[in-house]
Design goal:
27% strand; two-stranded antiparallel sheet; mainly beta
């Protein structure tokens, strides 16, 4: 087998389905075309990049779609879309490239509760990960079905403001 570069606790495998469930694809409400990724950080609160949703108007024209992925049998899952509610909460920060937006509690398609999806609370503590170390990223690259990156992704420091 050779020497392993890094061992991970099986906790990563146990938490993966929970963490993955909170990740959704940002779509245009009018066309359902995807253009970004976001994830739930609290009940009814989504975080995405500022460059994805930089204004309240952009958020009003968008929704978040969960379960846009392939199941363990390699079949497309039935996705659920939730309206964004920037009238209730919208905060965007360009230098840190994030936006927080409120999410409607029931899906458009089946009225499924948003609470059935997990959320990942933000943790301001330091020391959880080290700059230059690999990170696992769950996302919708190019608005495709949900995927995960296990290698070739590492935490980098923010560039200095110029």
């Amino acid at each position: 087998m050779g020497a392993a570069e890094e061992f991970l606790s099986v906790l990563y495998l146990k938490r993966a389905p929970i963490v993955s469930k909170s990740v959704g694809r940002i779509i245009r409400r009018s066309s359902e075309i995807g253009f970004g990724t976001g994830f739930l950080v609290a009940p009814g609160v989504l975080i995405t990049n500022h460059h994805v949703l930089s204004t309240k108007l952009a958020a009003e024209r968008a929704a978040v779609q969960f379960d846009y992925e392939i199941n363990y049998r390699h079949r497309e899952m039935r996705s659920e879309s939730f309206e964004l509610r920037p009238d209730l909460l919208f905060y965007a920060n360009k230098p840190l490239d994030f936006a927080l937006i409120a999410v409607e509690p029931l899906s458009r398609e089946t009225r499924r509760p948003l609470a059935s999806y997990s959320y990942l609370p933000l943790d301001g503590g330091e020391g959880k990960i080290t700059i230059g170390k690999p990170v696992i990223i769950i996302q919708h690259p190019n608005a495709e079905r949900k995927q995960a990156v296990f290698r070739e992704a590492e935490l980098q420091d923010l560039p200095a403001n110029e």
